[in-house]
Amino acid sequence: MMTATSADATGSPGKQAARPRPRRQSLYKGDPGMWAFALHRITGATIFFFLFVHVLDTALVRVSPEAYTEVIATYKTPIVGLMELGLVAAVLFHGLNGVRVILIDFWWLGCKYQRQMFWAVGAIWLVVMVPVVVRIGMHMAERFGWIGHGL
């Protein structure tokens, strides 16, 4: 007594029917939750790096106050000013998104509204960052002599 197999059904023993393989999809498909997760990790790592450098350069004061003064003087450049702006943006997003993560974890409707909360975090971040950019930009313009000191 014989049983039918897929090889028997195709008519050629020992070979299976050639089926197109399904294309493997990426685990991440661009969902806002994925972007929130990625940005939270990136901003967290950025803040950690800043704190690490800050502790090192502050500890330099104990070793050599003159070296500390020289290191701090190198920070007074437009590039570092932009990095300061980026740090403010990272801390603000990380904090707001952290509140969102807490709400997802502890609010019984958190998972249902996580997408709307992500867009709310983005809107609040934008509303706060606009005046921050203006203020830090004015400070940088004064510090680097791009505009008069009368502001």
UniProtKB/TrEMBL annotation:
It comes from the Bacteria. The keyword Ligase does not apply. Keywords: Heme, Iron, Membrane, Metal-binding, Transmembrane, Transmembrane helix. It is found in: Membrane. The chain crosses the membrane at residues 34-56, 77-96, 116-134. The keyword Transferase does not apply. Its cofactor is heme. Residues 1-25 are annotated as: Disordered. Coiled coil: none annotated. InterPro entries: SdhC_prok, SQR/QFR_C/D, Succ_DH_cytb556, SuccDH_FuR_B_TM-su. It holds the Pfam family Sdh_cyt. Gene3D superfamilies: Fumarate reductase/succinate dehydrogenase, transmembrane subunit. Belongs to the cytochrome b560 family. This is Succinate dehydrogenase, cytochrome b556 subunit. It comes from Mycolicibacter acidiphilus.
